[in-house]
Amino acid sequence: MILPRLLVVTDRTQAAGPLPDVVARAVAAGARAVLLRDRDLPAGERADLADRLRAVLDPVGGLLVVAGATAGATHLAAAEPFPDPRPDLVGRSCHSAAELARARAEGCDWAFLSPGFPTASKPGYGPALGVEGFAALAPHGPPAFALGGVLPEHGPALLAAGAAGVAVMGPVMRDPALVRAYLAASA
């Protein structure tokens, strides 16, 4: 499966309303892939939320990726063990060439490479990579999506630097209509 150039990452603490409503507005604006990140939810609540988000994405042929899931499409934290058996689709968060090489060796379908730009959401992962840093690291792993502080205007330069696309959390959680700007910039 080829992932779209924009992956929306959830964070209900930043969401401009109930998360299913925010995701529905992002999907209405053109989003077709969503990563359910909110790992702090109890398992039952998280499963219910995943079902509600799938109900939003399924009618448009969208993809729901669930962080840490053991089946379907999953996204793993940098240090999280690789699941056995392998889910259908697997991505991994990466912050260095070594982590990207690990993701490639594991057969990950994609990687999030962060932090792309200064952001309050990704503290503790070193200085922002910027476009040049992203370009230097991205070839070490699977197709890489820039995450962290990415604004629509960064899209063209990141794509030119080898990004498969961008992953966005805060800006879209706060204003789902921004999906249009990200899609236009990443076309």
From TrEMBL:
CDD domains in the cross-refs: TMP_TenI
Pathway: Cofactor biosynthesis; thiamine diphosphate biosynthesis
GO biological process: thiamine biosynthetic process
Keyword Secreted: no
GO cellular component assignments: cytoplasm
Signal peptide (UniProt feature, chain positions): none
Pfam families reported in the protein's UniProt record: TMP-TENI (PF02581)
InterPro entries named among the record's database cross-references: Aldolase_TIM, ThiamineP_synth_sf, ThiamineP_synth_TenI
Ranges for domain Thiamine phosphate synthase/TenI: 89-170
Keywords, in A-Z order: Thiamine biosynthesis
Record-linked SUPFAM superfamilies: Thiamin phosphate synthase
GO molecular function: thiamine-phosphate diphosphorylase activity
Free-text function comment from the UniProt entry: Condenses 4-methyl-5-(beta-hydroxyethyl)thiazole monophosphate (THZ-P) and 2-methyl-4-amino-5-hydroxymethyl pyrimidine pyrophosphate (HMP-PP) to form thiamine monophosphate (TMP).
PANTHER family: THIAMINE-PHOSPHATE PYROPHOSPHORYLASE, THIAMINE-PHOSPHATE SYNTHASE
Protein name per Swiss-Prot or TrEMBL: Thiamine-phosphate pyrophosphorylase
Organism in which the protein naturally occurs: Geodermatophilus pulveris
